[in-house]
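Quick one, tokens below. Sequence please?
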């Protein structure tokens, strides 16, 4: 019996190794936002006609020089990207949505989350329902912190909140800034310290309503 289980485990490991990359799970934290951006920029550079004229063995060095990054760093990122970049955005989106919807403070409020790859810069678009104007800052802080942690491939978060069919809040925040939010201090500092981390903030309850009302239809 023990021998059979050993052989079975060996067969399963061989099958996993031979499986197409698309069938294998991609860990959300397999690449950082900066690594993913660099890898996609490298791929785009390979399509440049000027780069195509360079001998294949010298292309990476030329691209690294043009990007202003060490060759070893680019080589490491490219190797990682070839292994995990495909499906990474989708894996991050699934992980972030799961983390949001399971959170006790905002889980029941989440309407939608989508990660969009914009030329290597991944933007997370998040929409939630607000029914208490005094909780907007806290909700925004929780959402930003959760997504930044669960979706490390995202560079930027674009958030908006709806009260019925009315968009009452919009803001943007860089993932690096959202990472500074301490979840255990959100209730104390959301409306003061943490709200300052957001950019382009529009709050209807503060006399500065969002200009674009799209995205809140029921």
């Amino acid at each position: 019996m023990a021998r059979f289980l050993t052989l079975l485990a060996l067969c399963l490991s061989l099958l996993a190794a031979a499986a197409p990359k698309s069938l294998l799970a991609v860990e959300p934290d397999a690449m950082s936002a900066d690594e993913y951006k660099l890898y996609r920029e490298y791929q785009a550079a390979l399509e440049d006609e000027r780069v195509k004229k360079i001998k294949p063995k010298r292309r990476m060095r030329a691209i690294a020089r043009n990007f202003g990054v060490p060759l070893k760093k680019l080589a490491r990122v490219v190797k990682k990207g070839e292994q995990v970049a495909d499906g990474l955005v989708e894996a991050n989106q699934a992980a972030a949505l799961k983390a949001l919807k399971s959170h006790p403070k905002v889980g029941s409020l989440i309407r939608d989350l989508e990660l969009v790859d914009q030329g290597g810069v991944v933007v997370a678009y998040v929409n939630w329902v607000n029914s208490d104007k005094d909780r907007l800052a806290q909700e925004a802080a929780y959402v930003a912190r959760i997504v930044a942690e669960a979706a490390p491939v995202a560079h930027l978060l674009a958030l908006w909140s709806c009260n019925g069919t009315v968009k009452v809040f919009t803001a943007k925040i860089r993932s690096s800034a959202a990472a500074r939010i301490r979840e255990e201090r959100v209730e104390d500092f959301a409306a003061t310290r943490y709200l300052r981390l957001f950019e382009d903030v529009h709050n209807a309850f503060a006399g500065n309503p969002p200009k674009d009302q799209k995205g809140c239809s029921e």
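The chain has nine helices and five strands. Residues 28-84 form one domain.
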